[in-house]
Amino acid sequence: MKNLTLFGMPIALDEKTGKLTSNEPDVCWEDYSRKYSGKMAGLLADPDYKTEDEPYYDFYKAIVKNSTRSTFSDVDLRYDSTVILPGTAGKEFKKTAGHFHLPIPGKSYSFPELYQVINGTALFVMQRVDDYQKEEPMTVKDLLLAEVHAGETVVIPPDYGHCTVNIGEGTLVFINLVSVNSMNYYDSVKQSHGMSAYIYKTENGYQIEKNPNYVFECEPKVVVPADSPKLGISKDCPVYTEFLKNPALYRYLNEPEELQEEFFAMLKEK
Ligand SMILES: [Fe+2]
Predict the structure, then answer these.
(1) Of all helices (H) and strands (E), which one includes residue 155?
(2) Which tens digits make up the pLDDT trace of 135-150?
């Protein structure tokens, strides 16, 4: 078992099974689900890749210490975790399905989402398109690939569809902090056979392949996240702990307009 101190509460990873556990009765989660490779059919670079029952990733919804529950619900935020097992489907690194967020009620843009990597290394694929609900191929206006190591945090800007890829050798564990009112939209990513970039394993790391089911008006850009006091992001400081110190600071996850520029300013070109 590996203790994951970046969680901000006592949670350990069983590296053999990829499962999270806590020996503290105060720590709980609302729901747990495991996605198998059969459910990833149609989302992978290789349309012929066929394995039905290989574990792909786990989702733990609303992880909380009971004693801090109201601090989250008072500001309409939820703290979840995803665990992506190591490995590839053919040449392509394991990843999450990918989705967009629906607009904030009464607004023309969607909720942002904060992600912190707890263990391993992630590549966050973030794409802005012309219209994520249309039938024809989507046109990619901006494609950012954020390399994020354990202890680092990235914020997905409003309107950016996103998926997470495990580009490391080990198990990838990350958390997200998101509005409880944010709704995911999966259909257009499914129709496009995944996000606009596929990430292949190579001898020295990874390689980016454009998904031919999209039209591109830009080239993919690899970025790395920096600290951002305005967004409450500080390397190696658990987001859970930082949030509890100052919950009001994370109001931007429900009201992102004021900090729109900061979401991009904290991403540096690699
Ligand atoms: Fe999301």
Answers:
(1) strand 153-156
(2) 889 999 999 999 999 9
SS3 134: coil
**What's the gap in Å between 113 CA and the centre of ligand 1?**
6
Q: What architecture is domain 2-269?
A: Sandwich (2.60)
Centre of ligand 1 from the C-alpha of residue 81, in Å = 12
Cβ neighbourhood burial of 77 (10 Å; 0-12, 13-18, 19+)? buried
Integer Cα distance of 236 and 78 in angstroms: 20
Among all chains, which residue has been given the structure tokens 């951002």? 228
The confidence band for 50, taking pLDDT boundaries of 50, 70 and 90, is confident
As a dihedral over the C-alpha atoms of residue 181, residue 182, residue 183, residue 187, rounded to 10 degrees, the angle is: 170
Output the CA 232–ligand 1 centroid distance in Å: 19
Is-contact 224 145, C-beta < 8 A?
Answer: no
Question: What pLDDT, on the 0 to 100 scale, is given for residue 253?
Answer: 98
181 CA → ligand 1 middle, Å: 12
pTM of the predicted structure, to 2 decimals: 0.97
Expressed in angstroms and rounded, the spacing between residue 108 Cα and the centre of ligand 1 is 17
In the reported structure, the alpha carbon of residue 127 is separated from the centroid of ligand 1 by a whole-number distance in angstroms of: 12
